[in-house]
Amino acid sequence: MKILLTGSTGYIGRRLLPDLVKAGHQVVCPVRDKRRFDFEDFDEGFLASVDVIACDFLDRESLDKLPKDIDAAYYLIHSLTSNSKEFSKLEATTAENFISYLNTTKAQQTVYLGGIANDEELSDHLSSRQNVEEILKQSKTNLTVLRSAIIIGSGGASFEIIRDIVEKLPVMIAPKWLNSRCQPIGIYNVMEYLIGVLGNEKAFNSTFDIGGKDILTYKQMLLQFAEVRGLKRYILTVPVLTIKLSSLWLYLVTSTSYRLARNLVDSMKNEVVVRDNSIESIVTIKKLSYKESLERTFQKISQEQVVSSWMDSFASPDFNNVFLNQVEAPKHGCFKDYKSFTFSRDPQEVIENVWSIGGARGWYYGNFLWKIRGFLDKLVGGVGLRRGRRNPSDLKGGDSLDFWRVLYADKEECRLLLFAEMKLPGDAWLEFKIKSNGDNHQLIQTATFRPLGLWGRLYWYLVFPFHGFIFRNMAKNIISYDQSS
């Protein structure tokens, strides 16, 4: 079949794509920016079954580029991490444009992955998901809706948030929503359901709840996570934390953004438990328990097989424009801190050090100062350092890297360009590149800051003295660091 896969660069879609190709399907991947698609991760044989087309479902005219001869479509577009307060409106507009296009095709089925929503009073997030369902039902194709509980998988928002809480807090004073019940499902089982309903006429025009083997409170999920990690944790729940305070608590403790924390906490007042198991008679799978899903996830992490991460979604609503158009730091109206050091060791070893910067490795000098800067960023609503990185040694355009975003990464060119997503009175870039002349090599490290008004200029002069020793020593240590020691 010819399948349209929306969200192919997102957390779910990026994992679903290889499964569809392996099953013999031709897959069309609409993306806002082709550079965010992982061409380098696939061989020519795989890419022969994939057609990547640049378009935006918020721009109806751009959808004219999409083919009309598709047989089915996956709708995996969500705006949960959007900074916009009107994410429900964005989701509705996107869905309306999607069915406007879909009705011009010969598609027989649409598969939509949403969230379990069985309560009468729903959070804004779950209400928006239900509204998208209603819009998708207006298309002429047969709609299959899979409503999922919390998804457990490497790089997933829920998994990473739970991991942050458990691994960083031996004793937790937590909000009362930890007593709400949930039926978490492993990402492996989610993929089985998504593939299992494709082209399955028994699943046409039907809505199914999907969950794992266990029904647990969020408190039990935290404690079982601790057991899997060999940790002893103590949790005290208190009834006095409001949604706003709970969101702030989650934001400060974990790597999540405040917007995502607010949406998640608001949703946790709802019980997300499967009430209708009819999917089991249509798609037969072996359900994993919560602990089995965790153990499988940590195996993937230990093997550095984290395929996708929720953290790679853009933190700033304006960042996509920067990403689309900016592969060079601006030259005019900016302050620059330029460091250059000559070295004689193998440049490939140095570029490997550059590609391993941030995350668990740290920033090669003054890590405690970077952590302080990340903490201050969190206090003013920024992303902080806790996002880490998708992979300890691999970087590609669009990746999150602590409180930076990778704009450009080319190992052959020996060049890495980062854009700051921290809260700043201006815009900032950090670039690393290596130039070679025979046996002599040069690491060039450039910090660029484009100030916004008087406060931006004052900020630069306040931090400039720190640049003198932090950036200088960082560059020196990048050159000298031995990864084999």
Give an account of the 3D structure.
Helix 3 runs parallel beside helix 4 (124-136), helix 7 packs across helix 10 and helix 8 packs across helix 9 (258-267). This protein has a seven-stranded parallel beta sheet with strand order 3-2-1-4-5-6-11, with helices on both faces. The protein has helices at residues 13-22, 44-47, 87-102, 124-136, 157-168, 187-196, 218-228, 243-253, 258-267, 290-302, 319-325, 347-355, 367-379, 453-480; strands at residues 2-5, 26-31, 50-54, 72-75, 109-115, 142-148, 151-152, 171-175, 181-182, 185-186, 206-210, 216-217, 234-238, 335-343, 400-401, 404-410, 415-420, 426-437, 440-451. The chain is an alpha/beta fold. 34% of the residues lie in helices and 21% in strands.
Total DSSP E strands: 19
Tell me the number of helical segments per DSSP (H or I, 4 or more residues long). 14
| Multimer state | single chain
Please identify the structural class as seen in this structure: alpha/beta
Helix content: 25-40%
| Mean pLDDT rating | 83
Low-confidence stretches: 314-325
- Cα-atom Rg, whole angstroms? 23 Å
Anisotropy-based shape: globular
How many angstroms separate the termini?
51 Å
Largest beta-sheet characterization? 7 strands, parallel
Q: What fraction strand?
A: 15-25%
- List the strand order in the largest sheet: 3-2-1-4-5-6-11
